[in-house]
Amino acid sequence: DLQICQQRAPTCCTKKMEESYQAAVRRERNQSIQALNFELKYMIVGHITAFQEAFESLLRSAENRTSSLFETAYRPMAKEAAAPVKELFTDISLYILGAETTVESAVLRFFDSLFPLVYSRLINPGITDLSEDYTECLRLTRQDVNPFGRYSKNMVTELSKYLWASRMLSQALSLGIEVINTTEHAALTKECSKALVKMQYCPHCQGLTLIRPCVGYCLNVMRGCLASVSELDAHWREYISTLEYLTNEKAASHDLEIAVTGIRNSINEAILHAQLNGPQLSATVDKVCGQPRQQERDLSSDNIVPVKEVTEAQTFVMAHTSLNNKRREFINYMKRSRTFYASIAERLCDGDLVMRDSSTCWNGEDVV
Known about the structure:
Largest sheet: none
Shape: rod-shaped
Radius of gyration: 32 Å
Order of helices and strands: HHHHHHHHHHHHHH
Strand content: under 5%
Number of helices: 14
Number of domains: 1
Mean pLDDT: 84
Number of strands: 0
């Protein structure tokens, strides 16, 4: 009643043993593919981790520096500005990680929230009644009166240009893990299971437990079993090329670091621009939103504090160099894995599975 290991010679196998062998080859094949995938997946996960850690560290530092700008130069609004600043950097982080948002919406939302604070705390510091309606009116007016001049749009342009490659690279790395995980658990067909049993375990039914498959025979069986996986070859090669392009784009735009750390200076310039155009802004806002209640107050010159941007020659040099070295190491490894899915059958037939340097091997029917 044997279905797979049918031979004329006497046998010690039963149909139940054949079923056990089929379960064994499925388990062994999954383990073999997982072992092959492990190093590749380890490298990608490691790069994802290094990339995210470096970027989060960069954002944290930039957020702290931006917060310190308000605490040192624009103290009247520092406390209220904390939430918009945090939201801006959270939005940037989410954008990098692939969230359905844009750099433009994040930056413009920040300036929408900032304008009521700048208007009521710096341009007209006597305002006492800042109702929700008045605040909302100021937010909406920001788009029309453009209090921050070209600085808000410049910030959108700079950040969009340099964050794009980081966002794409983050998504591409996650896709790589997804592909590897999918191939790891690819189900074997019944025909494949039978072919593997015939190759690996049918010799056992004749007591030939030490004989191993011939190399050519193993390759034929494995290629048949992994035909669907090897179809990924062309797509995987294209994927590696895309990774290489994105990694080079990201390395070329180390201006990403400059752009993110320059957020503080952009915001400072934008606020100064608004203050310098305070009278015109007040006249326009009064027409649109009405005049809020004010109290008499001595307007000191403390309200405008030009802040010189601190030159940060060394702050990110070490982190950037380290990340660049990791990028190079990573992409060189990934380029070597270009033929990963084309050569998977050869790699599975390598090692202990087949008989090498021996005069005898199993060809599926007999010892040759």
